[in-house]
Design a protein that fits this description.
The chain is built from 13 helices and no strands. The protein has about 300 residues and is mainly alpha-helical. The longest helix has about 35 residues, at about 265-295.
Length: about 300
């Protein structure tokens, strides 16, 4: 008696194979030297941002908003800022908000872009064209100009920053998601699910999404990097976090006028943002290389 494999069994086998792709992708990534360097740089900055606020005021003797002396003086470890506040205290307290806003904006953009891209690729051709042409219109708008306009109208509030940055990321993520989804929906396990009248949203969630995690994770790393720079840039322009909030981007703007006299108020946040950006870029490049190698090996 010959054995046979049903479409459902074949689809389940393929899906089980792909579900394990994400851990393998991470392992392949971390074997690369640049990924290890990126993880160290990123972890160091994350440690400062997460633990820093917990160290105040007992580690420095001051909170991030307390006055410790006259402006731009070499008092303390790194001196004082433009208002006489301790630079080290503000630096330790200034990274968490930047990272939190960047992470929330990235998550919002990933959710919106993934839903739009997957839905467009798995819809009728005219719906796909309509969605993606509308997406192209949004891509034509400069991100910074759109952000400046929205923040000027709605005000420099945290939720506005997150929403604006997330929405501007969504069209770019949607293009990547649509391309990845289009290459998956022609697979046999998707056709088998369609034959058994599985709802489309279940096919997208259970069959398609697990198979496009590689490109999405690469895009996640890129968008996180851009979000960090975006939040810092808006704070530098005075449209992000507002005084007296401690923020790395805001610190650069506040202390740039005395760069030659008291440089630490600028050097510390610039160094932290630079290390974080380099670290996340190294991780993203390593992830992209690991994803490409994983796809070739299938």
């Amino acid at each position: 008696m010959s054995s046979s494999t049903t479409p459902t069994d074949m689809g389940a086998t393929d899906i089980d194979h792909e579900v394990g792709a994400t851990p393998r992708l991470i392992r392949r990534m971390m074997r690369q030297r640049q990924a290890k360097i990126g993880a160290v740089l990123t972890g160091l900055v994350l440690l400062v941002a997460l633990v820093g606020p917990l160290l105040l005021p007992w580690a420095t003797g001051y909170t991030s908003t307390a006055f410790s002396g006259r402006p731009f003086q070499p008092d303390g470890v790194f001196g004082t800022d433009n208002l006489g506040r301790d630079i080290l205290s503000r630096f330790l307290d200034g990274g968490l908000r930047l990272l939190a806003y960047a992470a929330m904006a990235t998550a919002l953009g990933m959710v919106l872009g993934t839903i739009i891209g997957m839905s467009a690729a798995y819809s009728k051709p005219w719906v796909d064209n309509l969605v993606m042409r509308s997406n192209d219109v949004l891509l034509a708008l400069p991100q910074l100009v759109f952000a400046l306009l929205a923040i000027t109208v709605l005000g420099p509030q945290g939720w506005v920053l997150v929403t604006v940055i997330g929405v501007t990321h969504a069209p770019r993520i949607a293009r990547v998601t649509r391309s990845a989804t289009a290459s998956v929906i022609t697979e046999d396990y998707v056709r088998a699910a369609e034959m058994y009248a599985v709802p489309r949203w279940k096919i997208l969630a259970k069959d398609v999404l697990p198979n496009i995690t590689g490109p999405l994770m690469v895009e996640l790393g890129l968008r996180m990097t851009y979000s960090i720079g975006f939040v810092a840039a808006l704070s530098f322009l005075g449209l992000g976090m507002q005084p007296p909030t401690a923020d790395w981007g805001l610190m650069i703007n506040e202390n740039r006028i005395a760069l030659m006299v008291q440089p630490w108020g600028v050097i510390l946040p610039v160094l932290a943002i630079a290390l974080l950006t380099v670290g996340t870029n190294l991780l993203t490049d390593a992830l992209a290389r690991a994803s490409a190698n994983l796809n070739v090996g299938k």
